[in-house]
Sequence to fold (333 residues):
Amino acid sequence: MAATLATKPDATKQRRGRRKTVEDGTRPVSAKLSWRIRWRRDRSLILMTLPAVVLLLVFNYAPLFGLVTAFQYYDPLVGVWHSSWAGLDQFRMLFQDPLFWGALRNTLFLSLVQLVLFFPIPVVLALLLNTVMNERLRNFVQSVVYLPHFFSWVLTITIFQQMIGGAGILNHFLRQHSIGTWDFMTNPHTFALLITSQAVWKEAGWGIIVFLAALAAIDTNLYEASAVDGAGRWRRMWHITLPGLRGVIVLMLVLRLGNALTVGFEQFLIQRYAVGHSAADVLDTFSFYYGIATNNYSYGAAAGLFKSVISLLLILGANRLAHAFGEDGLYRK
Fold:
């Protein structure tokens, strides 16, 4: 009896809450909204993202239909529907081609070099910029390091050619002082360092945007409390800043590993003849030169499909490894 009396006020409050909701014309939070109400509510956001969705469908998902040519003897004169089927013959020829394995080896090696030498630099730049107290100086430095991102690879390689090429400023200085010259732009043994330095100069400034946003989200009260407790700058960076960046670093690392086999088509295409195909051929240039350029479209599509499958496995494996270390990765487990 006492329990019944105790529950009556709660039931009365619930009925009054429902009655007030109806009278105010508002809808309970748990109620399911119809698609018309959601459309009226989110119409501006949907229309704003519509062009990006269309571009994504046209340039990323529609071309997936062309992967069927990897299993055909594709003839552009008769089209996809009337080309004869090859089954896995294109992949058998691909795996028996020593040029393909050379391109794959170059791709993995160059990706590893860029991962080790390039990936930490945006993190370091973000930490350094975060310590600059003068806002005008910080904005100026950000603008300077962002600017090369908007240069094309043709312009970037031209600048490097003028600086460290055979007739560049560096070799001109060495000749004036009777010192032996060295053309970095045509040396296949230093090609990995060359393309990494080009990528760092062009893209490192743009890559710090994500890390600066993550740094801005760290609670400043933590720094003040640690300073009061006597923690120095390095200790605050080790115990506050880096743990605050850990989730973003893991996410960017997962994305980087998923994109490891795409090391830069245009950059390698421009410099391939200078250093030779044995040093500059990667999977993207292999698909172009031995597929599209020779009208063997099915062979190039098979190489592209192989790269896509391996990239998918890499990103899934990296994401699972992130979950094993307690991070979210691309999505929460």
The chain is about 70% helix and 0% strand. Confidence is low (pLDDT under 50) at residues 1-9, 17-30. The CA atoms of residues 20 and 291 lie 70 Å apart. The longest helix spans residues 297-324.
